UniProtKB/TrEMBL annotation:
This is asparaginase. Gene3D superfamilies: 3.40.50.40, L-asparaginase, N-terminal domain (3.40.50.1170). SMART domains: Asparaginase. InterPro entries: AsnA_fam, Asp/glu_Ase-like_sf, Asparaginase/glutaminase-like, Asparaginase/glutaminase_AS1, Asparaginase/glutaminase_AS2, Asparaginase_C, L-asparaginase_C, L-asparaginase_I. Residues 3-182 form the L-asparaginase N-terminal domain.
Length: 328
């Protein structure tokens, strides 16, 4: 029988109604009791009790340390977590726990576990099944799909179909035959090295017509060390009147990396196609290619945390580290 660990951190899945609204209250053991018997040997640890809106870099580090600590004692780990920031946590854990030796599966729900028609039982069962059978890696299991964590985005606020695997197919789907493995995460194996050094003074800016690039300098003056700009379409930026392109060049000369991603959820940014992208590229903008914004910002935080300079970060973003990006 596979030996699995449930690390519970709160979220809707563990929430109960209160006068203040939904608040996480149930323990991991409560979740398991409501779920009923499963064909695994499961240990439980309550490590946090938070709505995921309150999960921040301090919690990412703590969660990564817990996973690292227990990974050698279990065949797989399930992390129950609120859905709102789950894709960020999954992305960051992918960078902090590279070459993890077991499957680690994040899950949660849109409706609390104690509600009769909740999606929580399905999602938890799926997460345990994935933790017992997937290859090593960091995954997110939700609504009958298992996805590579660093490719996920929360795309719906209330529907059970809350997450998508963006730009790559899911790893597995539930069918009447069980868990159907669709794609291989293609991750390298080795010995996991925990690395939780990250730079948190970064920013993610969504461009809109009229955005004043002066605000980027205000960020830099306040200690911002790197910026992801969600630019237009394939990665274009304005240069008439409000000169984003020149601002990006100036920031990069100051040693502040600027990553250009796309506001479009699907497909990639390609700065070489249009003049408005090429000019930014000439100024040193780094393309996020087909990465999610969640992956781009967490990759940037992790890279800066390793002490990389702008050139090293450019090289780092030209590499696929944990399945987060398609190169070529
Ligand atoms: N469905 C959820 O879990 C949402 C909740 N606010 C959370 O992220 O913790």
């Amino acid at each position: 029988m596979k030996k699995l660990l449930l690390l519970s951190t709160g979220g809707t899945i563990a929430s109960r109604a209160s006068n203040e609204g939904l608040v996480p209250q149930d323990s991991g053991q409560d979740l398991l009791s409501m779920l009923g018997p499963l064909p695994y040997q499961i240990d439980v640890r309550d490590i946090l009790q938070l709505d995921s809106s309150n999960i921040q870099p301090e919690e990412w580090k703590f969660i990564a340390e817990q996973i690292y600590k227990y990974r050698t004692k279990y065949d797989g780990i399930v992390l129950s977590h609120g859905t709102d920031t789950m894709a960020y946590t999954a992305s960051m854990l992918s960078f902090m726990l590279q070459k993890i030796e077991i499957p680690v599966v994040l899950t949660g729900s849109q409706v609390p576990m104690d509600v009769v028609l909740s999606d929580a039982p399905h999602n938890l069962r799926l997460a345990f099944s994935a933790a017992a059978s997937c290859k090593p890696g960091i995954y997110l299991a939700f609504d009958r799909k298992v996805m590579l964590g660093c490719r996920t985005v929360k795309v719906r606020t209330t529907n059970f179909n809350a997450f998508e695997s963006v730009n790559v197919p899911p790893i597995a789907r539930v069918t009447s035959d069980g868990l159907d493995m669709i794609s291989d995460p293609g991750l390298g194996t080795g010995k996991c090295e925990l690395n939780t050094n990250i730079e948190t003074h970064v920013s993610l800016v969504k461009l809109f017509p009229g955005f004043d690039p002066v605000l980027l300098f205000a960020m830099a003056d306040s200690g911002c060390r790197g910026i992801v700009v969600e630019a237009y379409g394939l990665g274009g930026m304005n240069y008439i009147r409000r000169n984003m392109v020149a601002a990006v060049g100036k920031l990069i000369k100051q040693g502040i990396p600027v990553i250009a991603s796309s506001q479009c959820l699907y497909e990639r940014s390609d700065l070489t196609r249009y003049e408005v992208g090429r000019l930014a590229l000439l100024e040193g903008a780094i393309s996020a290619r087909d990465m999610t914004s969640e992956s781009a910002i967490t990759k940037l935080m992790w890279a800066l945390g390793q002490g990389m300079n702008v050139t090293e970060i450019q090289n780092f973003f030209d590499q696929n580290i944990v399945g987060e990006v398609t190169i070529n």
